[in-house]
Amino acid sequence: MEIRASCPIPAGSEICIQYVRPNSGTLVRRAILSKKWFFDCACARCADPAECGSRLSGIVCPSPRCGEAALPERPLDARTDWLCAGCGRRVAHRAVGDMLVDATNAMEQEDEEEDTVAKYEKWIYDHAKILLPSHYLMIEVSYLAIE
Ligand SMILES: [Zn+2]
Ligand SMILES: [Zn+2]
Prior knowledge:
Largest sheet: 4 strands, antiparallel
Strand order of the largest sheet: 1-2-3-4
Order of helices and strands: HHEEEEHHH
Number of helices: 5
Bound molecules: zinc ion
Radius of gyration: 17 Å
Distance between the termini: 33 Å
Structural class: alpha+beta
């Protein structure tokens, strides 16, 4: 077996490997890491509300006329609220969780719609009001639509 680094590694630095697929939000990744690998990840990405600029967990602030991004306030806390950087509004952990469950159910729902591309496009249109374009569910459904 041969392992190659994708960037220069300074002497003495910690070498990290990827345990889970990178394309879900911090709370989902950390839950998998905790359950399957028995550790609470606190890497730079997990500790950053914006996940190194990807904003994979970002939702649209629900305040009227705000429309800014709300991100997990304390991403290393599994019960964190989301916080809007624009107006300071807090969205409760449970409300975000319910929103994501509903969104996932709507995505997986079997219906009489024959055209799956149209179904996914409608899902993206409907959920653009509550999820940032960078949210991992938006990216996942966009992939499904072009598959
Ligand atoms: Zn991490
Ligand atoms: Zn706001």
